[in-house]
Amino acid sequence: MAAHSYNRLAGQRLHRIEALSDGVFAIAMTLLVLELRVPVDRVIHSEKELWATFLDLKVELLTYFLSFMTLGIFWVGHSVQFQYIARSDRNLFWINIFLLMIVSLIPFTTSFLSRHIEFKLAVIIYWVNIFLLGVIVYAHWDYVMRSGYVESDLPVSTINKVIRKRVIVAQSLYLVGALLCFISTYLSVFFIIAVQLGYAFALFETRKK
What are residue 88's phi and psi, to 5 degrees? Predict the structure, then answer.
């Protein structure tokens, strides 16, 4: 009984979750750029050599864009959920803390991918990071729905259906992208980027007339 009482007393301030989440997402997104290091071990004598030096960073630039989009997609999804969450508790705080733990791994898995992009294992490890994010985001929403913490002027059942479907479809597409690494690791990365761009610009949305 005491544990239940403490759980109800703790974790009541939603803005603390949002503030911490925004901070961790911001730091993780900023850390990504640290992989873009200007080469200093060569002397540049011409524009052609400078272009060649810049193009040597193509993998780092590609994975930077990939992961910035990844974090952007999940930050937006996290923010959308909090638009409809009216209450919280200690359990919800800890679900968010575990989510942020996985978010903070993105710079590492990005670095690993950029250094070993020609290997399937590097793509799979990156995908596992995305998969875990999706699992916790889904669990987060499932918890607030079961706890009755969702409130809105819109029908809650409609909101629930849309959010759950978005997570499931996105994770299914990411899985397809991961499996493509058995054909080509670059094809896998470009497919995942295409999925992210589709969600960022609402290309997968069905518009009712």
Answer: -150, 175
Query: Rounded to two decimals, what is the model's pTM?
Result: 0.88
Residue 35 carries which DSSP code? G
pLDDT of residue 209: 47
Domains of the chain: 2-200 (1.20.1410)
What sign has the CA pseudo-torsion 176, 126, 199, 75? positive
Question: Rounded to whole angstroms, what are the CA distances from 207 to 71, 76, 155, 197, 202?
Answer: 26, 20, 19, 18, 10
Whole-angstrom Cα Rg for the chain: 20
Which of 3-17, 87-101, 128-142 is the least confident region? 3-17
Q: 205: which 2 tokens?
A: 């949305």
How many residues would you count in the chain? 209
DSSP-H helix ranges across 33-155: 47-55, 58-83, 90-103, 106-115, 120-147
3-state secondary structure of 84: coil
Q: Residue 66 pLDDT > 90, yes or no? A: yes
